[in-house]
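User: Modeling request: complex.
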Amino acid sequence: MRVALVGLGTVGTGVIRLLDANRELIARRAGRPIEVRAVNARDRSRDRGVDIARFDWADDMMELARRDDIDVVVELIGGSDGPALALARAVLSAGKPLVTANKAMLAHHGLSLAKLAEQSGIPLKYEAAVAGGIPVIKGLREGAAANEISSVYGILNGTCNYILTTMEREGRDFNEVLKEAQELGYAEADPSFDADGIDAAHKLSILASLAFGTQIDFGAVDIGGIRSVSAADIREAAALGYRIRLVGVAENRADGLFQRVHAVLVPMHHPLASVEGSLNAVLAEGNFVGSLFFSGRGAGEGPTASAVVADLIDIARDEYGDPFAMQVEQLAKRPKANSGDTIGRVYLRFLVQDKPGVLAEIAAAMRDAGVSIESVIQRGAHEDGAVLLVVVTHDTAERAIRETLDQLAGSDNLIAEPVVMPILG
Amino acid sequence: MRVALVGLGTVGTGVIRLLDANRELIARRAGRPIEVRAVNARDRSRDRGVDIARFDWADDMMELARRDDIDVVVELIGGSDGPALALARAVLSAGKPLVTANKAMLAHHGLSLAKLAEQSGIPLKYEAAVAGGIPVIKGLREGAAANEISSVYGILNGTCNYILTTMEREGRDFNEVLKEAQELGYAEADPSFDADGIDAAHKLSILASLAFGTQIDFGAVDIGGIRSVSAADIREAAALGYRIRLVGVAENRADGLFQRVHAVLVPMHHPLASVEGSLNAVLAEGNFVGSLFFSGRGAGEGPTASAVVADLIDIARDEYGDPFAMQVEQLAKRPKANSGDTIGRVYLRFLVQDKPGVLAEIAAAMRDAGVSIESVIQRGAHEDGAVLLVVVTHDTAERAIRETLDQLAGSDNLIAEPVVMPILG
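Assistant: Request completed. Predicted assembly structure:
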C-alpha cells in the first residue's frame, strides 16, 4: 500500500520511523507491505533526523490527491481550515482514502468530510486525532458499539495534564510551569489551544459524536482552561481529598447534549486522579458494558505515529466503514443541554479583603441563591492582605452558583474573580 | 442480519436483552438490524426471564450451521471440546460467520478454527472470550497493530480478583471468601478453572498470540492460582507496600515466549493495584505507543453481551479479517522461554518452627543459591507455635529461588510448603 505523507513535523517523521522499524511485522499484520511513496512539507531541506530523499518529493501537495501511484494520503499539516482542509477535500473527492490526526479540522468539518468519504465508500480515519496512541476512537466506534452510552469523559490534553501535575508535585504556579514546559518543548509558544481548553474541546466534540450517535457540535462545547488554577487551589483541593485535572465531559441528557471542558476536582480514588504527566485517559459509561477505562500516552511522536499507522493497517486490511460509526444522515442533531441544570458539588475559591463581613456577604449570597454549603476553609491573610476563602457546596444546580456569583459581582470585598470548579462524580 | 444463539445461560440471555434494549441504535450503527432468528440450548423450558418463544427453537444445534436463514452463529455453550467445538467446526466449514465467547476452545483449537475461517474468508470473532466487555482483543489486534509488543499482562479473572480484594478488605481467608462467593453466584461450584488460574491462562495464551504474532501455545503457560494465598500474605504484602493480584504475564523474549499466570505482589502505585472486585485490566507495552491500559468489567451478563454484540456489529458492517491479526501461517512458532532466567524481586513466605537456627538455615540456603535478601519480616509465633517468616529478595534469577527451595525441601524446620510470589515490575 503506497502512502503519501503531507506534513513532516514530529508526527510525520514518527510515522516514517515506525514504518521503518516495524516494517516486517506490519506487513504480516496488514496482509501487505505499507510504504511511504511520496512526501510533502513546507520545508524540503530541514534536517528531520530521517532520510526523506528516498521518497518522491511532491512540490504541490494537491497533486497527491490525483496520483495513481498513491493509495492513501496522510494529512499531518494541522489547522482547522486552510491547506489541511483543502487537501482533505481534494483527496476524498478524488475517491482516495484519507488518514488524519487533525482534531481541529474534524471538530469543524468532520461531518462534511465524512459525507465525501461516504459518497465514494472510502475510508476517512482519524485515530490519532484523539488521545494519541490510545485506541479510543476504535473503542467507541466499535468496541462499545452495542451500548447506549450515557457519558464519555476524560483527560484529553497532555500539556495541561503535565502542567497541572507538575504544579501539584512541585507546588509551583501556572505561569512558571508553563514557561518551563515551553522551554522543554512540551507546550507550544502560543499555549492558548492547550491551556484554554480548545484542543480538548475539539477532541471532546469528536468523542461525543461517536459515543452518542449525534452530529459533531464543537460550537456547543462550554470551554474553560487551566490558567486560573493556582498552586493554592491545588493545595486546598488536596487537603479536601481531590486532585485538579482538566477534564472534558460529554453527556447525552434528556434535554440535549452537554459538553464541557473545565478544570475539575477529581476524588483521589477516581481513575482520573492517577493520570499523571502527559498521559491521557478516557472513560465511557455504557448501558450494558458499564464503565470502560482507557489510558496511555496521548501525544508525542511514537504514540501518535502508532495511531496513524493503525489506521493505515485497517485500510490495508480493508476493515473500515463510516467514519462516525454510522451514516452521517443517521447522526442525530441534538440541542445543547441547559448547563444550568447540571447538578453536582462545586468548589469555589474567593480572594477577599481581610475585614469583617466578607464571609457574611458570601454566605448570604449563597443562601439567597439556595446553595447549601458543605465546608468552608479560610486560611490566614496573604502577604498582601488578601484572604483565601474556599467553599465546597453540597449538590446544587449550577444556575444557583451563577446566581451567587452574579450577586457578588459588584462587591468591594472580592479582590479577584472567583474561581469555580465542578467536583467530579 | 439473522443470528442463531446456541447456549442460553447468562451470556445468551444477556445478548437477547441487549439486542432488545438497544435495537434501534444498533441498527443505525451496524447499518442494518441485527435480530435473533433461532436459538438452541440444553433446556427449552427453563425460565430465563426473557421471552424465547418468539425465536425458532432448533432441536439440533448442528442444523444451524446449514440453515440458509441464519447469517451468523453465536456459540455460548463453553468447554474446550465436545459440542462447542463440533458446532464451531461445522459453522465455519459451512462458510458461516461464528462469534464465540469460548476462551477454552480458542486456547486449545483457536488456530485450527482460524484456518477454517480463512479458507472461506469469513469471520471468527471472539471479543467476549477475554476480559468481558473490555475491547482488548480489538485493542491488540487493531489498536496497537503498528507496534512490536514486548509484553502484555493483566488481571484476567474477575472471580479471583473478587476473592483477593475481598480477602484484602475484610482480612479473611481464601476458603471462607470462596464459599461466600459461591453462595452469591460469583464463583462456580467447581472453582478450579478460576482459582487455579486455568481460565486466566486460556485468556493469556490468546492475548499473547495477538500481541506477538505468535501461535497460541496454551500448553506453554506456567499456571498458578490463588489457593495458597493467605490473609497473612495479604497483610504482609500490604505492610511492604504491595497488593496481591492474580496476574497473567506474557513476554516476547529473545529465547522464546514467556507466559505465566501467578499470584504476584503489585506495587500500590501500579495501575493493576487499583483494580478492585470483579474488574479486569490489561496492559500492553508497544515499541512506539508505550504503555496502553484498558480496564472495565471482565465478566457478567451485560459486559459479555456487549462484547458479543460488538462482534456482531463488526460482521454486519463487514469490518473483519484474520481472527489472530494475520494469516495463521504467518504466526511464528516460538519455543517456551526458560522461566528460570526471569529476573525480578521475589516474595517468599515460610511457615517455620519456633526454634533456634531456622532463620540461619533459610538464610544459608539463599546465600548458597546466590539470592540476595532485601528485607525479612518475622512475626511472633502463631497460636500453634508456627512462625511466619517473610523474605523479600533483591533482583534475582528465578532459578536461584528454585535452588533455594530445593535445598530447603527436606527441612524439618518448615511446617508448610513455602509460598513464592514474584513482585511485579
